[in-house]
Amino acid sequence: MTSNPAKLIIDGSETCADLLYATKFAVGDPMIFLLEGKHSTILLSDLEIDRGKREAKVDEILSLSEFNQQHEGALGKKPTLGDTAVAFLKSRKVRHAIVPPSFPFALANKLAAAGIKLEPADGHLFPARQQKTAEELKLMRRALQITEAGMARGIEILSSSDIGKGRRLIWGGKPLTAERMRAEIDSAILHHGGLPMNTIVAGGDQGCDPHERGHGPLKANDLIILDVFPRDARSGYFGDLTRTVLRGTATDAQRKLYATVERGQKMGIDQMKPGANGEKIHDAIKQFFTDAGYPTEKNADGRWTGFFHGTGHGLGLDLHELPRFQAGKLKANQVFTVEPGLYYPGVGGVRIEDVAVVTPKGGRLISKMEKRLEV
Predict the structure, then answer these.
(1) What is the pLDDT of residues 307-330, one digit of tens each?
(2) Are 232 and 239 in contact, with CB atoms under 8 Å apart?
(3) Where in the sequence is the domain holding 38, given as residue range(s)?
(4) Do 264 and 172 fall within a single domain?
């Protein structure tokens, strides 16, 4: 076993964030990536190799078909990707490699049978992903601009809707449903260069289930949670933004719920300093909510109410990226969502989410979308 094993990925970079991080090259089909010391190599199919030579940020690019032709005797006439990987690693005298936790099981068995030891990484294959560079922060700001464009479209539609019978909202002469609004939000994201991902438009008590996508007619005077988290098609970085809005007039109970969540979010952002403990920040927000009259508990139906999810999560080339907000001490240049929420059936759900980078003075917002309850 070498003291500094190689790093190996066999995957497509559109689904493997570690590979996209290492190569800056987006491709759907699997390729073979090998990092030996500081030297990086990829084997690409003929379909991708010309584009790879233009775009991939690696030291060496090899043709998969040419490699197979050169090793035809050892590989056989129709080698699988696993056969090629074995031959390639043996040609580089690699007997031990670190791989992502998601490395395909069948390929791992194939390499193990050839005497190549694989060791799964503990988290990211490239731990540097956890602390963003200035260039990455620019890319994340662009992803958030795409996110904000989608959110703005949803709020624009809600603002221009009319209130019909039974408090149903009418837009364009037809009932405004969660499905219609989601389609408009997603369309705006596409027009701005993003890829929409399961956008949430959840009104009324639907918003009390944090991952309910939402369905059916939207109504005036109901709290509506809009959670938008697209990927920038150009860079692969994600944005993530949640606003809670209401068309019409909020009740005192809805206003108080909203104002409490807004204050809790500010508390969390202000405390995001290097060395701060994410778990303690979460607990402080939860206690603040309890002191304000919003404890986290199960109601008579056995359903959780209050603040029963995490304060936030890491964000980057994965939507939920390591480290977890509540996993330990925060470090400079880590990027997190901050998204406390309160959920009470009969009143509704409120969640407010922004994206912030850890700085010595606290969290610095890189999302810029305004917050307002009534539209």
Answers:
(1) 999 999 999 999 999 999 998 899
(2) yes
(3) 6-129
(4) yes
